[in-house]
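How a chain folds remains the central question behind the approach discussed here. This step matters because it turns folding into a mapping between discrete strings. The sequence in question and its structure tokens are set out directly beneath this paragraph.
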Amino acid sequence: VGNSSVLTCHFKGNATVLTWKITPKVGGLCTLGYRTDTDMADRKNCSDNINWKLRAGLAPALEIQQVGIAQEGNYLCEVASTDGNFRTTYHLTVLAPPRLSHYCDEQGSAVCEAAAGKPPAQLSWLPESSSSAEEKCHDNGTVTVLSKLTACGTNGSNVTTCMVSHPAGNWSQSIAC
């Protein structure tokens, strides 16, 4: 989420017509077309952050600026060239790093929350102790994971560390309750 992504069309020969067909998980089909003989581009039902990236000497590409969860889906590039027809398919998966918080609840138990992550974050505790976890799914495909420490450590220390593991990164936060 928030980064730019560039998807390249692969083909041989000289392109005459290039078309991107984008099928997002949410929303309707977006198409971008380009004819080299007339140097004309056409777009239908595409968000403003999706555009051609045409560079001299390099294969034509599609650039998605400020990628959002709404751009997740299938991207198909079709090229008609002097050497035949070519297709390149991508499946774009968008990762959303969770927002982290760590606090003590009313009973003095440590609570760790990884909010609005995609996919859901994995939470664990150091020192290892009993904990309960719950997930809340959101309409946009993100998930909030909340883990509550249910047993105290046996080493005499009340400092606990919540370990958060996610494809977008790993974090840890310590707290004493």
User: Anything to note?
Assistant: The chain is about 0% helix and 55% strand. The radius of gyration is 23 Å.
